[in-house]
Nuclear transport factor 2 family protein
Amino acid sequence: MNDEARLKTWNIYQSAWGPIDETERRRLLEQSVALDCVYADPVSQVHGRDALMARIAQSQLKFPGAHFKNDSYLVHHEQGLFRWTMYNGLGQVFVKGESFGRFDDDGRLVQATGFFEVPPGQP
């Protein structure tokens, strides 16, 4: 798997966090995330694709319409560092952060860890 393929996988994963229906979210996560993935950020840590689905749904309930755009990325040795901006439902900058991702041999994410300042309204 090359760097462009890893970026494509990351973009598919990131799209799953956007304002889409559950069926589409599941389809995107099946393409991009291993069944036993681990996700962590400053306010949560979940294990497995189903738990990640629930975490994303919670995020959309709390921040309707929120979505991401990559600002830059670095990839090597089956892992990547992704700098991103999160926009609210009105398209305004909401949060800037970075995420670390680790990929398996099939090219899916087995780990995704986000680093950012906790936005207003989060515990």
Summary: The mean pLDDT is 93. Strands lie at 33-41, 44-47, 67-76, 79-87, 93-103, 109-116. Residues 49-62 form the longest helix (14 residues).
